[in-house]
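User: Hey, my collaborator sent me this sequence without any context and asked if I could get a structure. I don't really work with proteins. Can you help?
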Amino acid sequence: MIRVWFNHWFSTIYKLIELLKAEGDYYVIGTNQRSAAVYKLVCDEFYTEPALDGDAYADYCLEFCREHGVEVFIPRRQMLAVSKRKSEFEAMGVRVLVDDYDKLVDLNYKIRAYERFSGIDSVHIPEYRLVTNAGGFRMAYEELREKYRQICFKFERDEGGRSFRLIDNSRTGYKALFMPQSTRMTFDDAFRALSEAEECEPLIVMPYLPGNELSIDCLVTNSGRIMIPRVKSSGRAEKIVYDSSILKMCDDMIDNCQLECPFNIQFKYLDDVPYFLEINTRMSGGLQMSCAAENINILDIAINKLFGIDKEWSISGVDKTVSYIEMPLILN
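Assistant: No problem. I've predicted the 3D structure and written it out in structure-token form, which is a compact way to encode the shape of the chain:
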């Protein structure tokens, strides 16, 4: 039995843990800062995590592995801090499902990732400006507004698009009271907010890409590259589309970054052109959709890879649509 630890994951890890247990002899330990994390229902043990960052959190993780006999650690929270000290986990006999720090550090900063992939012919990089104060924000907005209809911004270090905002100057006055709350805000509101600080965290200002999101779940194995492209729209249904140009983009990017653990590449469309957004150097929150679409257990394949075991897998290459339903669960 392999003792596996998941730290502070998305709620969708619930399904991946179910798939993992159905596939092999796994004992699953889960942690989260929220005691009500839904995936605790499919864990054999569950604990609430402390609020720590950086080396302090890595120290906590090392001690947690010692106390609980962890054999495989699958980190999401503080992934860079854990990766930086990966050798310490390995010295304890813990296999960590994360790539080496020198591979991750560029890819987890969006501008560094843009610069890294800008020389690849098949990859389209959106025009952008990096700013650190309100004055730079105004200048970037005015320059880009001359070329593009809509402008958006987000912090360079972000996960899940939490800081994403679309500049919408129509959201003022009485009529705005009838608009649904969203990530839209006016330029004036954004400028005022940024003006409260002399310097802000690095902020990316770029054209808004209004098309569908393209999310490709990937894993490199000895028998080939798993690449499952999902086209995500506003609804729950996602289309699996094996377009040769999409797969070529991913192949070229994998050649460049040489990641060994599961990862996810995201693009978004503008005028039918897929522009690169980011690489998530971990399993995506929607990986269970790809696994369901192709009847493949990417997490189990990845864990076996850590032990030097090559599990057989196959991809149909057939386009299809996959969706999901809500399922009520009682937590206690």
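In plain terms: The CA atoms of residues 99 and 261 lie 6 Å apart. You can pass these tokens on to your collaborator as they are.
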